Amino acid sequence: MKLQKRIGIFLMTLVMTIFANAQDKKASPAETVTGKINGATITINYGSPSVKGRAIWGELVPFGEVWRAGANEATTFETDKEITVEGKKLPAGKYAFFVIPEKDAATIIFNKEWKQWGAYKMDAKQDQLRVKVTPKKSASMTEKLVYKINKDNITLSWENWDIPVKIK
After folding, report:
1. Hey, where are the domains in the chain?
2. Is 85 within 8 Å of 131 (Cβ atoms)?
């Protein structure tokens, strides 16, 4: 009888552990991408939400409002060297990275207050740089938000949009 009791306790512990671990999975897990553009090392940290059948641009992410460019904490953008973003200088440093999407354009914001939750208390007076870019329709649907560091740009891809930002 003792063996059966031990097996029962073991199985119950196993089930509880599996259940507890399943609860730890975030809906928008933290992701990091690092790469080099023109000798500068760039690192982007972001929460990666999924589309989950929702309409994103203009609905979940409203047009005309500052968005954290990911989920949870504000997305951060870090460069170890001065770079140019859409032709404008951005000093080396770590920034909160925000987007104001519009139907045919997007404003990209690099804010000096990089440690913040979402975009709720974003202070425009702390902006280091703002640039306008043109989103493009994606070749295919992107379920999970992803950033890519390419040879001359970074691209945010989610749902049916790619938002490229030229960097030198």
Report:
1. 27-166
2. yes
The pLDDT of residue 24 is above 60: no
For the segment 27-58, what is each residue's pLDDT rounded down to a tens digit? 889 999 999 999 999 999 999 999 999 999 99
Six token digits for residue 140: 């295919």
Paired tokens of 47: 């929460």
Q: How far apart are CA 116 and CA 37, in angstroms?
A: 26
Determine the length of the chain.
168
Q: pLDDT band for 115, please (50, 70, 90 cuts).
A: confident
Q: Provide the terminal-to-terminal Cα distance of the chain, rounded to the nearest Å.
A: 72
CB-based burial of residue 40 (10 Å sphere; 0-12 exposed, 13-18 middle, 19+ buried)?
Answer: middle
Structure tokens at 53: 């059948």
Tokens read off for 93 = 């440093």
Instruction: Report d(CA 30, CA 8) in Å as an integer.
Output: 37
The one-letter amino acid code at 128 reads: Q
Q: Which tokens go with 23?
A: 């609860």
Reported pTM: 0.82
